[in-house]
Amino acid sequence: MKSIPIVSRIILLTFFTLFFLGSVLSGYITGYLGVDNAYDLKRILVVLFIVCSAVGLLWRPSIPIIVTSPFTLWVVASLFILGLLSTLFSQHPFWSFVELANFLLLLCLFYVIGVLIADIGRTAALQYFFGFALFFSICIAVKFFLLLLFHALDDNRPDVHSLVAGFMNVRFFNQLQVMLLPLLCLSFYIEPLKKYKRTAMLAFSVQWLILLQSEARGALLAIVLAAVVVYRFLPANLGQAFIRPMLKAVVFGTLLWLALIIIIPLFIFDSPIWQLRTNSSGRIDMWIYILQAIPERIGLGYGPMSFAWAEARPLPNAHSHNALMQFLYEFGVVAFILLASWSLIILWSILKRLTLLGEKPSEHLAKNSQCSLDTGSHIGIDTDTTDIVLVFALCAIWIYAMFDGVIVMPLSQALLVALLALNCRHYQLRVIALPWKVVLMAAVITCGALLIASLGDTALNQQMYPRLWLTGIIN
């Protein structure tokens, strides 16, 4: 049994490695792997990881399964049932079913990450996530400064996309930033990580600089609002300890931005390389379109993924840049109400959990590696200060999902699911009968094969507006 945590550590490190290959190094390996673009590479890597890890873990005699609340189970089951019903009336049932298959794989990833956390221990898993967030941030920062230097030497004005490599669109990277920046704050609370606090906050400063340079208004708003909300729910002493290091990092990052992006380029280029955008980039027009179109199919919507072929939409985008609006259009008003109410209830419950820290400060719980799994039934750990970081990350990404395609992009989907799994505390050891294992393996493999087979389908418009794949518009 001692080999189980080792194997789980290897699987978790593989998750981070594929994440790194699909982002920072994607520009270097797409050609070798025969993939046309970095976006499709990300999707393929996520699908392969889910299928391989799920099939591998199902061979175990017993599996620690995350125990969610009955309300959450009811909401998830209802959403899938509504999705299936909506698929039956969809204009393109095949693509609607492909979207549901992708959601099923993400649900599978949720349980896979949960198994890894239970095996490794929650605090140890958080240390792995911190290490990845810090390493990822440093690599991105190095590439950013090198590209900025090369643009200056070549007298080539950079734009918002040209200083962040490895992503087809800088907004895909901004989505990851919103989730990874809060994880750098784990160095405040976990004893072995406190020696990296200055390095983490320096990385935070550089990432803040990149957010400002890339004009990521939604991401900046999400991080600031989430930090304020978390601060308001924390006791005074913990609130100060949470906000002060970040304020210093934000100030330093802003000063870097003023120096490197605003002032110095004025002496190199003939015009500023940054400008403040005041329009909505067409988002408001898309949301108005959804509100005008939904009364015709208010019950079940137009079908999963249907925004990718929506007629007369104001912009050719394959998604609506708003998670709730997307569910409203594609799944209908019932699914919209379910998802909105569930997400708000979950956010409120985890925010209220922070108030318990004032009654029972338990930072010492984060000093020792601990496992959320006991051989008993529903065993968890008490609320500890690492909850502050997870609540910060989940609040930030929920806010940003109201402005961007967080629930659409492959790496964003995967990281969001991982954060949700980290937030869960209770596990139950289950022995899955062999027939059920065969059924589950077949379902996972079928969903993965269906997604991969859809790449290059003739129904895909060759314009590069991403949804499941980079060519996300359905003819």
From TrEMBL:
**Any keyword Membrane?**
yes
- The superkingdom listed in its UniProt entry is Bacteria
Q: Name one Pfam family in it.
A: Wzy_C
A GO MF annotation of the entry reads:
ligase activity
Q: Where in the cell is it found?
A: Membrane
Which ranges carry the O-antigen ligase-related domain? 204-339
Where would you find the membrane-spanning parts of this chain?
42-59, 71-89, 95-117, 129-152, 172-190, 202-234, 246-269, 327-351, 389-422, 434-456
One cellular-component annotation, GO: membrane
Q: How does it sit in the membrane?
A: Multi-pass membrane protein
> Ligase: is it a keyword of this entry?
yes
Under what name is this protein listed? O-antigen ligase family protein
Q: Supply the source organism for this entry.
A: Shewanella decolorationis
